[in-house]
Automatic annotation (TrEMBL):
Mn(2+) binds at E35, E65, H68, E136, H169. Belongs to the manganese catalase family. Its cofactor is Mn(2+); Ca(2+). It is an enzyme of class 1 (oxidoreductase). CDD domains: Mn_catalase. GO terms for molecular function: catalase activity; metal ion binding. This is Putative manganese catalase. Binds 2 manganese ions per subunit. Binds 1 Ca(2+) ion per subunit.
Length: 208
């Protein structure tokens, strides 16, 4: 159960529309390392996470990623509203405009549509948490790249906030991973896993 608070996690107030910038930032809406994939990844993984603390981290961060999805879509909306046809054509926004007008639709900066292959849910706590650590670093790198390309301070401000939260998420997933590892068999999990590595006992009559 979620309670929706009718305000953005961090304010977005962009004064100058710019379709070129919108096409770049759109990747953090529905791109390979964007907020849509992040929210679906963590909220899917939480169901099979055996450690309650780690499950709580997945639920918390997955929920926050939904708030980040809202922020990114607001940025894209403010960058594309009230554009003239000339601005749309000159900015290279025309192909998107033909399909979606200025509606918010999940795709990467390169125009690849979002799909469920953008996120993983493996059901193994170690695998999933390592996946999440990598995902947060990839999202942080994407925001770094956006900050290198964008000059508008009204856009830079919320993007810096989003980047900072990726760093915090990375730290929290690191803590969750250590919590899960502390509960593993004292023998190295990767070197010895009884359910896989012990020889199976034959049940045929000759071996009894």
């Amino acid at each position: 159960m979620w309670n929706y608070e009718k305000r953005l996690q961090y304010p977005v107030n962009i004064k100058t529309p710019n379709a070129k910038i919108a096409q770049i930032i759109m990747s953090q809406y529905g791109g390979p390392d964007g907020e849509m994939g992040a929210s679906m990844r963590y909220l899917s993984q939480r169901f099979t996470m055996p450690n309650r603390k780690a499950m709580g981290v997945l639920n918390d961060i997955g929920t926050e990623e939904l708030a980040h999805l809202e922020m990114v879509s607001t940025i894209v909306h403010q960058l594309t509203k009230n554009l003239s046809m000339e601005e749309i054509e000159c900015s290279g926004f025309a192909p998107y405009y033909v399909d979606h007008t200025v509606g918010i639709w999940p795709q990467s900066a390169g125009g690849v549509p979002f799909n469920a292959c953008e996120f993983q849910s493996k059901g193994d706590p170690i695998t999933d948490l390592h996946e999440n650590l990598a995902a947060e670093q990839k999202a942080r790198t994407t925001y770094d790249n956006i900050l290198r390309l964008v000059k508008d301070p009204d856009v830079i401000d919320p993007i810096r906030f989003l980047r900072a939260r990726e760093v915090v998420h990375y730290q929290r997933f690191g803590e969750a991973l250590r919590t899960v590892q502390d509960e593993l068999d004292f023998k190295n999990f990767y070197a010895f896993n009884p359910s896989f590595d012990m020889p199976a006992k034959c049940s045929c009559d000759s071996c009894k």
